């Protein structure tokens, strides 16, 4: 468990799906992922928002190399805030864990005076879809029960609700109902935050706010039957977690630079 020091409002930045390579020149569907990530972080440098913590919610690496995780760690160190990692389907868990443990990025529960953030591992090694193991669900239940005085934000990589995109929903969270059942029985569950879908959404189910965030590289076109890339720019999400349980949030996309995407590809 990691204890954050914050004012009455907890300020969070989510960066997701960086898809880095060990080689900084590595490209995903034509996009140099190291350069696109740095462009997003440079825009965050100028954003009027001092984060108390930063969350990186999966697919940190595309090639799973140890060096790719070190590049990410180095890039985000400049913000001076604690950084917490989750694995995605493209991540190599042993290399992520090696670097993540060295740099103190792998805490499962992060707490402040009014909020707790629960980081759930939905990776199924060797698979693209996600699944929460029973111990992850138990850990969430325990955190919600033990600190029912704290508002709770739950983070994972795979989407726990349908995105109305046939190909994407086939690779979402397989046991999404188990997660939603737990959240529905705890009034202190306020929000769920994820990556994986390379697009932004924001809505409510049973009073819980559900949010996804753009990748720092390629974007997927919403509501398509098959794999399709979007023209939308890379970005990040900011969140303000208020002491009364409200969540203020928004997505900021690159405005000063663009990256050409190879549209001849049919997958990634």
Automatic annotation (TrEMBL):
Return the similarity comment. Answer: Belongs to the cyclic nucleotide phosphodiesterase class-III family.
State what protein this is by name.
Answer: Icc protein
- What are the leading ranks of the lineage? Bacteria, Pseudomonadati, Pseudomonadota, Gammaproteobacteria, Oceanospirillales
Q: Which Pfam families match?
A: Metallophos
Classify the source by domain of life: Bacteria
InterPro entries in the record: Calcineurin-like_PHP, CNP_phosphodiesterase-III, GpdQ/CpdA-like, Metallo-depent_PP-like
GO molecular function list: cyclic-nucleotide phosphodiesterase activity; metal ion binding
Could you tell me which PANTHER family the record lists for this protein? CYCLIC NUCLEOTIDE PHOSPHODIESTERASE CBUA0032-RELATED, PHOSPHOHYDROLASE
Residue ranges of domain Calcineurin-like phosphoesterase in the record: 10-199
Q: Which UniProt keywords apply?
A: Hydrolase, Iron, Metal-binding
CDD domains reported for this sequence: MPP_GpdQ
